[in-house]
């Protein structure tokens, strides 16, 4: 079993984090994960003060929050690692991330908003890399980082905050140990921020969480059955493209 401490941030700059004491309180984390809608300067501050890798996806407000100057172009935080539609393995811990930026489409011409179909196609492009990890490391991925939640798990009914059905399918077929997301702001502390979906712990990290994550059998989990590449690829592509799944 591998245990990791992770600082996860999303959606709002929190003064408890954007402070000179962050090093004392968060200096022992293994890495930082951002689930989006945060200014680039906030993430740059975290990587500079903690000297830890910061993995991030953009949120739907990325255009406003990461641009340079009043009318400048959007920019990504310097020295941080973009997980947007990528599968990335952290070399130090061996943890495998996959990242899904943005929200459902609710405005025209918005840069980081996607229809269910667009999100599905982009996830399908990540499938070969996920399969490669399954063959090489015995699992597709460990932590799925997204801005939006999966459909019907901590999402809301309005079009902007409805979760993606395809994220449910992805979780069902790749079984990450954790799924971290933001986008849905939790003001009511009695509302839970954790759920389980197909054995995956889904956590809304708003506005920040110091998490103690546990991974069974890492970093070298045994593969019990010799995997068949073609059948995994067919199975995964079919299930992800199949659309909304209502099973929990
Ligand atoms: Fe958002």
In words, what does this structure look like?
The chain has 7 helices and 13 strands. The chain is of the alpha/beta class and 248 residues long. The chain has one domain: Purple Acid Phosphatase, chain A, domain 2, CATH 3.60.21.10. Helix 3 links the parallel strand 3 and strand 4. The structure holds fe (ii) ion. The site of fe (ii) ion has 7 residues, from loops. Fe (ii) ion binds next to loops.
Short précis:
The chain is α/β, with parallel strands linked by helices and 248 residues long. It has seven helices and 13 strands.
What's the architecture in CATH terms? 4-Layer Sandwich
* Alpha plus pi helix count: 7
**Largest sheet, order of strands side by side?**
5-6-9-10-12-11
State the distance separating the first and last CA atoms: 26 Å
Proportion of β residues? Answer: 15-25%
Q: Give the C-alpha Rg.
A: 17 Å
The parts where pLDDT drops under 50 for at least 5 residues are 220-225
Topology:
Elements: E1 2-9, H1 22-26, E2 31-34, H2 40-50, E3 54-56, H3 62-65, E4 81-82, E5 87-89, E6 96-100, E7 103-104, E8 113-114, H4 116-124, H5 127-137, E9 143-146, H6 165-174, E10 178-181, E11 194-197, E12 200-204, E13 208-215, H7 229-241
Helix pairs in contact: 5-7, 6-7
The protein binds fe (ii) ion.
